[in-house]
Amino acid sequence: MTPSVAHVTTIADSLELLLLDQLRAIRGAGYTVTGLSAAGPATAVLARAGIPHLAVPFVRASGLTPLADLRALGHLVRTFRRERFAVVHTHTAKPDLYAAIAARAAGVPIVVTTLHGFYFHDDMPRRTRRLFVHLARAGMACCDAVLSQNPEDIDTAIRERICPPSKIALLGNGIDVERFDRARIPAATTADLRRELGIPPGAPVVGFVGRLVAEKGVPELLAAAAAVRARVPDVRFLFVGWHDRAKQDAIDPSAAARHGIADRCVFTGHRRDIPELMSAMDLFVLPSHREGFPRTVMEASAMGLPVIATRIRGCRTAVDDGETGVLVPPRDPGALATAIAEILGAPDRARAMGRAGRRLATARFDQRTVFATVLATYERLLRARADRMQRR
User: Fold this and answer.
1) pTM
2) Distance separating alpha carbons of residues 215 and 201, to the nearest angstrom
3) Residue 83: which residues within 8 A CB-CB, separation 6 or more?
C-alpha cells in the first residue's frame, strides 16, 4: 500500500511558493501527497500540479486567535481520522502546534515538523517569549522528528528544552538553482521588464521580495531609501510582494509618499516571475527582524545578486558577510542606507559578491539535497514503526 503524506501550512501560498517542488518530489518517490491549509487562490496551482488540497479553517493574523485555532484543531482531528495519513508533516507556527497535536490525537503513525524558525525572538517581552517557548515545546512533544532549516535553531531548541537533541536534525533549505540562474534569462526579457515597470535604462535597482509588513523591515528600507536617494539620485527601489492586510504590522505602499520617495519606488504586488524580476535588480535587500532561513536571500544569491540582510538568526546562515553580501544591524535605517550606497557605488565589489553568491547557492542551497533528507527521514521513521509493530 502506498504511504500517504499530508503537508500542513497555515495558508495555501506556502504550499505553492515554499513546498510545491518538494511535494512533487515526494510524490515522485512513490508516496501519495495532500496539502492542507486555509483556502486560497494558490489551491488552483496545486490542482494543476496534481496535488489534492483539503481546506482547514486557519485564521492568519498577528498574535493568538485561540477560539479560531481551537476550531481548526477540531477540524484537523476529524480530517486526520478520516483520511488516515501515514505521515503528517507540519510547517510554520500554527500547524507546528495545532496540526501536530491533532495528528497525535487522531492516531497518525508519524508526525514530522520542518522548523522554519521560531516565532519567539530575543526582542519580545519576557512573558510573551516564555509563552511561545512553551507552545513550541507542546508542538514538538507531539513530533517524531524535527527538521530544522537553520543550525542556530537547533541550538535554541536544545537550550530552551523545546525538544531533545535526539529528535532534531539539520535539514537546511534549498531552492531550484537551475530556475534561479541569471544566465537563463535573456537580456531582452530583463530590458522589457524594466520598461514595463517604468525603470529608466541604467538606473540602479535595489530589490526587496516579501510581504509588506514591518517585521520584514519595510519601514527601515523606506527610511533608508530616502537617504540613499540623496547620494544616488537615479536609484529605484523595487518592492515585490503583497500588502498583507491580515497582519497588524502591514505596510501600505502609500508609505513611500510619506518618506518623499514615491517616485523612486515601484510596488508590483504579488508576482510569480521572481527570477525575471530579480534579473532587473542590481542589489537585493532583506532588512527583516525575524527569519528562519530566508528563501529570498538564497534566490537572490543564486541569481548572482549581492545581498544586504540583517545580522539575525537565519540571515547569518544565508549570507557570508563580506563575501556574498553585507550584514547590518536590524532596525537601523542609517546602517542599511550606508551599506546600500556603498555597494551601489562599488560595482566591481558588487559583481564579485554576486559571483560568490552564485557559487554559494549551487554548493549549499540546492533543494534536491533537502528533498533527499526529507524522504530519508520518512523512510527511517516508517521502517522503525514497522519493526516495532512486528515485535508486538
Assistant:
1) 0.88
2) 32
3) 4, 6, 34, 54
